[in-house]
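As the next step, I selected for study a record pairing a protein sequence with its backbone structure tokens, which the following lines show:
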Amino acid sequence: MKQAEFETAPDPVDARLGARLAELRAERGWSLGELAERTGVSKSTLSRAERAEISPTASLLNRLCAVHGRTMSQLLSEVETEPPLLVRAAEQPVWEDRTSGFVRRSVSPPHTGLRGELVEGRLAPGANIAYDRPPVPGLEQHIWVLEGALAMTAQDVEHRLDKGDCLRLRVWGPTRFRCAGPEPVRYALAVVLP
């Protein structure tokens, strides 16, 4: 059999996401090399993401969002249709980082004229996601744990949140989200642009 028979078509969301990432780079007139320097991500990884040969990880998307001045929800909403005022549970976009065990649901996607959004995050036991910078400096976050336990690190301080706990902060530097218990953690994340 030929190799083409084994290849599968890229995920439609990854394909639209890749095309949007290429558009954003082109709008700024950056080469892959320039984008690689700004993000610390290899040119080959950036190229493969733009061609939808790989599904980008949360960490990779965060780095790209940082250089493009967008939150992850804003970027993901740009590859979806215009969000309606009422978002039914079955219509809320879900994105999964299979590598890290992170599932992200855009409960209330970003909308023109609004500064806030609501996200549901789920981390599998052992999942640990590190972001080297916020997508937008000074981003306001409210993290409310719905099930399980979450360890969230910001400004070199780890905060342990159990069911019902809420952490609120502005994000200026690196952050880390870690499932802190033997069971998955599910949390609500309210994000407000500065």
Remarks:
- Helices lie at 12-27, 32-39, 43-50, 58-68, 72-78.
- The first strand starts at residue 94 and ends at 97.
- The CA atoms of residues 102 and 123 lie 5 Å apart.
- The longest helix spans residues 12-27.
